[in-house]
Design a protein that fits this description.
Blueprint (H helix, E strand, L loop, with lengths): L9 H7 L13 H10 L10 E7 L10 E8 L7 E5 L9 H12 L3 E5 L20 H17 L9 E6 L1 H10 L3 H6 L11 E5 L5 H8 L5 H16 L7 H8 L7 H12 L5 H7 L2 H7 L7 E6 L8 H9 L6 E6 L8 E2 L2 E2 H11 L3
Parallel strand pairs: 3-4, 3-5, 5-6, 6-7, 7-8
Antiparallel strand pairs: 1-2, 2-4, 9-10
Helix pairs in contact: 3-14, 10-11
Length: about 350
């Protein structure tokens, strides 16, 4: 597919003090960029995060599932802000990419709260069910607790700013939290007149779930889909509140999900109160909401690689065409980078970009 000439926002990168992305040998192309951390595990320091449990309500479907989410807090002396860092589909606070982003932000002077969504391990034992692209009843209470931390982590008297950084579906969840209704914010104890976040960075985040589902079903992505499905089914069957005979049959029998769409139809949509999988994909996709009401967001930077094998770039390109320059959304495109890759000569380019972007926010 041919793309428009996208020399990725050189003026914005210059303002941020970030050189354009250049992929590093031997990680050439979207697939190798995507798989780099799997093929060559990252050597990271011992995790020093302090565990923090955050209470969440039961799922909207009425199924058992109230409990808590587990997060890990790392705080440098005199932090500039607190950043809630969120993993993607099948991920957790322990995944290499999320930990590496957290380390980059910590070294840049930010307190970092790495969250495990419902169903992710560690923390799987604390709450039943699994998460979704739109899970505001889980995420907004986390952001409310994070706001409280912003007041306790500083000695200056003024609360710290609260930022978000999401990888893949983690960015989608944070976008949906920022697009939440006043009623949802009130229910979580947040001020409905103010944004849940003061700034947001998203890398490789799906804006159109139906397009992403279709993309992952392409024959070339067969291995990716099998890997994701195995993780999702394993998370679901490890539910500490138990699994019904019906769920067990649907997930492990002859009718078990063969695609991500099948899984979302069987598990995600009904558990989160959506009429069906089409309704889930439509209502939980941020794209149309962002086009219609971009002003609802805090200052936001979206990063998208054109060669991402999982998340088609078309939705992000459509968003760029639809929003004006005076809106709070900015987008950066790279020709290479894969899905949550961006492995450059000096390490992960996306991590440096996130830290530089947040530095500009007050």
């Amino acid at each position: 597919m041919s793309w428009p000439d996208l020399n990725p926002e050189p003026q914005l990168l210059k303002q941020l003090g970030v050189a354009p992305f250049r992929q590093r040998f031997p990680w050439w192309g979207g697939d190798l960029q995507t798989l780099r951390d799997t093929l060559r595990p990252v050597d990271l320091p011992i995790d020093q995060g302090q565990p923090l449990e955050i209470e969440v309500p039961a799922l909207s479907s009425g199924a058992a599932g109230s409990g808590a989410l587990l997060a890990f807090l790392e705080c440098p002396p005199a932090p500039k802000a607190l950043v809630v860092v969120l993993h993607g589909l099948g991920g957790s606070s322990r995944r290499e990419g999320l930990r590496r982003l957290g380390i980059a932000l910590f070294e840049a002077g930010y307190a970092v709260l790495r969250l495990n969504m419902r169903g992710a391990d560690p923390g799987r034992h604390l709450a039943g069910g699994t998460y979704a692209a739109q899970c505001n009843t889980d995420l907004l209470p986390v952001l409310q607790r994070a706001r409280q931390l912003c007041s306790t982590l500083t000695t200056e008297g003024t609360p710290l700013p609260l930022f978000g950084a999401g990888l893949s579906l983690g960015g989608t969840m944070l976008l949906n939290a920022c697009l939440s209704t006043p009623a949802e914010r009130i229910a979580a104890g947040l001020d409905p007149a103010h944004q849940p976040l003061d700034g947001l960075f998203c890398a490789s985040s799906p804006l159109d779930l139906a397009a992403c589902s279709a993309s992952i079903e392409r024959p070339r992505n067969r291995v990716y889909q099998r890997w994701l499905l195995q993780r999702l089914v394993r998370q679901t069957l490890a539910d500490p509140f138990g699994v019904s005979d019906l769920d067990l049959g649907q997930l492990s029998g002859a009718e078990r999900p063969r695609t991500i769409r099948d899984f979302d139809s069987t598990v995600t949509a009904p558990r989160w109160g959506f009429a069906d999988v089409d309704a889930y994909y439509r209502e939980a996709s941020p794209l149309q909401h962002l086009i219609q009401s971009p002003q609802k967001l805090p200052p936001t930077l979206l990063l998208q690689a054109l060669d991402d094998p999982w998340v088609p770039a078309r939705a992000a390109l459509d968003l760029r065409e639809a929003v004006s320059t005076d809106q709070p959304i900015q987008l950066i495109f790279t020709r290479e980078g894969g899905h949550n890759g961006f492995h450059g000569r000096a390490g992960c380019w996306a991590d440096a970009l996130a830290a530089s972007w947040l530095q500009t926010l007050k």
